Amino acid sequence: MIPSGCAPPVLVTFADSDASEYDAATGCLKEPNEIVTLHNSLLRDAVEKLRAKHPDVAIIHTDLFNHVTEMVQSPEKFGFKRDVLTVCCGGPGRYHYNLSVVCGDEAATTCEDPSTRLFWDGVHLTEAAYHYIAEDWLNNILYQSKSVGFLLFAHTDEDLLRFLMPFIEPVHVNKYAGKRAGIDAYSCLHKGVQVQCTGQHGHTGEGAKLNRKAKASCYTSQLVRVVRAAPR
């Protein structure tokens, strides 16, 4: 969870709080954030138990709390304005948030450039904020993929597949022959596997270099179908 003590709806609802209840470094309410910290700690423990129980499954945990806290503490680092708790879309009032005029209402107004804001409407973050969070999510995938061995992806886009491919260990994919699977193209081709990508075929022998046509074709594939696996 994000630090709810920094969320404009919470700040507006408890606007009459004593000054001692605010974090001087962030302007956020301390008690709600302490509750979220406890929740996130229990969530991390639960995720670790699931990982131990299912070692062949990649379970990705994204730390929203620390990401949002960092954005609140250092908004300029992420291209956000200094009044970082002010929402982009809302009504008149402190933080541009109004319980009676929510984003989407006729009387609501929006900021000129959402990419300079952390919060979109007080409840949701902006696309710019989610972009930075997603980068960390991808880094977590890369880190955990080394322990899993390889990852299966369904409906991955070109950029994500290109980003992940150098970090995925080559694997033998005989068991995927004839099956439709979101397995990365490099693993297939590296092991001499014939794969079908976006209606085309590519094949290389053991240790051979990827031919450009097959590589480009597999990069843009949404799913990779293994047609024939190399013999053991």
Automatic annotation (TrEMBL):
<dbReference type="InterPro" id="IPR036514">
    <property type="entry name" value="SGNH_hydro_sf"/>
</dbReference>
<comment type="similarity">
    <text>Belongs to the 'GDSL' lipolytic enzyme family.</text>
</comment>
<dbReference type="Pfam" id="PF00657">
    <property type="entry name" value="Lipase_GDSL"/>
</dbReference>
<keyword id="KW-0325">Glycoprotein</keyword>
<protein>
    <submittedName>
        <fullName>GDSL esterase/lipase</fullName>
    </submittedName>
</protein>
<dbReference type="InterPro" id="IPR001087">
    <property type="entry name" value="GDSL"/>
</dbReference>
<dbReference type="GO" id="GO:0016788">
    <property type="term" value="F:hydrolase activity, acting on ester bonds"/>
</dbReference>
